[in-house]
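Annex B, item 7. Sequence and structure tokens for protein A, then protein B.
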Amino acid sequence: MNDAKVMQLFQMFAMIPDAEPWRDLAEAEMDAVKAELRDGADDSDNRLAFYTAARANLQYRRTVAQNTPVYAGTVPQDAECSLAERLVRAYREECAPLLRDDAVTFLRTGGCT
């Protein structure tokens, strides 16, 4: 996975002037996405950079929302977190062929009642 591309996309998604202070967060998401990869998946696929940056953006938004006080007349950060969650879901769908499917499948085999 291209670290520089992930950082560039994260900076764009988060709309921050400098993503470097958030590098640890982005690297944690890179590790998490690498752990989700199917065996034999191409980890240099550009879609993974978008998915990883979207995940980092969601964590960034949650951190900022948690640390932002809400006063009467101010807008809570819920809308930004909701948009970030939709972005993660959209990029996860794009990366689905590269990622393990952790959905539970129930099968019935012969002889079981």
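Protein B:
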Amino acid sequence: MKKIKNMIITRIILMIFAIILLIIPWYQLGFDFPSIMAGGKIIIDTKYIVVGFLYILLILLKVFEAQNIERQKKDLKMLCNLEETMEKILQNALLMILAYNGFITVIIPVLIIAKMMITDTMKNMSADNGKMLEKSRLGICEKGVLHIGIIFLLFYNLPFELWNFYFADACIIIATILSVLNGTIYYFQAKNLIVAKK
């Protein structure tokens, strides 16, 4: 259990570090991340590359953790809840920062965050009534596609950007559509409970 506990704590620390890297105006502190040129036309801020590698590491650690945590989840419930909250904060922060810096349109984080808040509310309402909403396979697809989209955005859509193929944008748009559809599924699952509450 100690190994899993340390892994969860490591992920939480790395998530906090990734957020700090992105939100602090380093140039005001007298430090600039170096920029590099790719393909003779794309100027890359290495800060995003560092966060990209951190994000990949976090996903790999999550996969390894998921394979070993099931038996110990009850003992680590509080830590797991904190980790899940930090995952949402990191994902939402990345989407908002990417939108702010012009990588994606602002409507993307608005829709995804709104859906997340609505589904969390529905899950809590269901739990209050002693019922659990079933996890949708669509939600798993949504997370996977969104992770891929965020990673490629942090890596400036390379190598696809060299061929003018907007792979990262496509992933983010597909993930947003899946997110809305997944939210709709949760709504219909919880509809009877919502009506009963009125």
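Comment on protein B: DSSP finds six helices and two strands in the chain.
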